[in-house]
Predict the structure.
Amino acid sequence: MKADRRERGIRLILYLPTLIFLILMSIFPLIFSIYISFFNYTLGQHMDFIGFGNYGSVLTDSSFWSALRITLEIAVLAIPIEVFIGILIAFLFNTRGKGVEVCRMIILIPMMLPPLVIGFFWKYMFDATFGIINYFLGLLSGNPQIISWFTDVRLALIAIVLVDIWEWTPFVALLAMAGLQAIPPNVRETVRLEKASWWLRFRTLYLPYLRFPLLVAILIRSIDTLKIFDVVYILTGGGPGEETVTLTMFAYRVGFNYFYTGKAAALSWIIALISVGLITILIRVLSRKSTA
Amino acid sequence: MKVTTKRSLIFGIRMAGIILVTVVFAFPLYWLFATSLKTRVQVFALPPKLVFSPTFANYLQVINSWFMGNLFNSFLIAALSTIFSIAIGSLAAYGFSRYPIKGSDNILFWILSLRMLPPIAIVLPLYVLFRALHLLDTHLALILIYSIFNISFTVWLMKGFFDEVPKDVEESAMLDGYRPLQVFYKVVLPLVRPGLVATAIFCLIQTLIEFLVALILTNRVAVTATVGMAKFQVLGVEWGQITAAAAIFILPIIIFTIFVRNQLIRGMALGGVR
Amino acid sequence: MAEVKLKNLTVKYGEVVAVNNVSLTFEDKKFTVMLGPSGCGKTSTLRSIAGLTRPASGEIYIGERLVNDLYPSERNVAMVFQSYALYPHMNVFDNLAFCLKPLKLTRSEIKEKVNQISQTLHLEEFLNRYPAELSSGQQQRVAIGRALIRRPAVLLLDEPLSQLDAVLREEMKVYIKKLQEELAITTIHVTHDQTEAQAMGDRIVVMDLGVIQQIGTPQEVYNNPVNLFVAGFIGNPSMNLISGELSREEGKFFLVSKEVKIPIPPKLGKKLEKGNITGEIVLGIRPEHIFLFPEAIQDSVEAEIIEVLPQNNEFIIDLSCDSFSFKVRKDKEVLGFHPQVGQKSWFTLNEEKTYFFDKETTRRIELP
């Protein structure tokens, strides 16, 4: 029927450009990278089929496991603190007023900035001799501090986590604020009238509205941590030694410093699978909420 | 009387808390701008100088350096990728919103997961392909890759805005003598213009701040501002210049952010900025 | 101007059948009201005519033209939506002029038409305002103006009055009806409000469950309901329906239900006998067709008044016999006594106005 043809025409115009582009630019390359991952291939040289050899070489590479461990450590250290401070900030800012609006705007800026630039000025602030952070620590402790943040593994990791917290706590706070604003005013009023303890109020009134945004925040932060690269690249450069090389940085080095293309392809598939797992959980959560 | 004092005490504590939090989060930014306005001597002053007389010497140096070319590349690439992504992404978003197809939901989720996938997973095969096509170190290569993320983002964000357009209004326009695509163009797009602008700004910001893909794909010609900044590392400790370059770079981003402040939640909940 | 003809129209949403094989002609220049409860298929029928919903099967003609394959924009129909659906980003002038733009008129022609329609609808002072700055009554006038400005062949009204307050609704009912008569435009009005249907329609199409139940003038559907649905749906308060078994004792007919035994007036009884009607049936009697007495008379049934709702000039009275209850509507003057809650009273049926329905088919039983 003519009407059917016309409707199909509209759909083609609407969908086709996007679908063609995304298939060409994502599905096709991803399949191509599976193909590469089965070859012993250093860029520019010829390819030898080795089956799952690259996967084996990734999984037996201690650097891979160390990168995975460091990425996890960053996530496990940073995300709970971001959630905790994020909730506090959300409650603090859950009020009206022009000044509050301005302050809210200011604290939301960090997450929009280039992580690379963030890495740069935090590096300056962490400087052992001239850095403002050591200066403040000196003021607090009473005697000058010359902490060399990036020569000690643990301190380097703490520095990365601190920067991550500065960068992303506002994001968690933003989602939590939205959750708090979704509480109907009458519900808030009823609970205010009852003289409930703070903890009880938090659990019965606020938590149900915070659970969903926080879950989304935690998932998104976890997915993001898999991608963490820029800040670490500038701040520690992966050092000391290779002690702060994250997963993405490891893949970057394998692929684009050493040009082990085959191995890097296998590695990028492993990273993709880990993130697809997390993304699937996130999408489940999101769609369950939207259908509920 | 007692209640009011208690209340104003709580109010006072809250305001103090808000100010404290704001200062903590704003201080690094202040320090960035402050450092950019310092002389070399002031930068390395001990103890650090919180108050000083500003100089624009660092800015002059940056403005006359190769970094401005990188900045231009960044804005060019971001603008073109944004225009392209908005143009075809909002068409698809409208499709998902009004003309669903079989498996729409699954396709939507596939598109969303593209946006959240670590770039490193996609960039490797594309690097090999672009190398074969002699597209490495070109603006086009970056525009194409950034458009994957921007289109995916546009589809999701714009679908939300299209969903909010009352269906009746569109149907009204159809009866008023307009074909479906004319309705899209003449009624729907004007109605979602604020959303369209916000989406475009998000795309711009996200593209401007990207580093890893640009680092991998560029070398000399299409070097972007982030990659250019990374090169400052070689300069070692010229903090005055580095922070001045950073300031020039992030100032437009901060202004953009202020523009989209009311849409931040929608934009950010779609998978972070990276 | 044109008639609208539906042939075997079926509309489905997935597995749900909204309109089931409907054939119907909307007469040229007439005001037809489609009446039915929500979900009865009336809106789906309307949207199919507009071209906003694609029917699963069947044909739609506007005038002589088969329009199934045409875009809404090509059908020369206009529609007023329940929400008015004005363009929020355009002022009133542009809202009205928007449908003229595809017609390639000159600017002065457009201006003239807009001025003309805004005069008719008293919108002259609002031309520069945006929809958000108008009251709902003004918005509705803009919506009507937008529909009428290009003189469509058919005007479709989708519950256009439901968002107005009571006073404005009465006003607009009269106004729309008058406008329609003046312009002599084929109009299809969808509503669930029967007073609206009675007041405005030249003809009423009663729908339920995707099927046309009855077509007729307002009087016809009220006086001669063809089945239980129409009988129960039309009229306010609705018709009392009592199902029971027809029985005969000592030459008299009774309707015996679980709760009550109602003597049937002798004349009616004879007709029932002549028609050879027996067994399970449903008796229907409108509240206004029940006679009520303060004391017992021949063949009356005793009942208790359990609720009295005084209206302007009448009472709506709830009666109960044991557990069975029904409504009576009487003019205050005609009733002749002041009903009180708890009072005993006696009722009989108006034999001219008593209906019988087949319990199985729900169709009305025609008496000889």
Observations:
- Chain B has two domains: 2-57, 59-268.
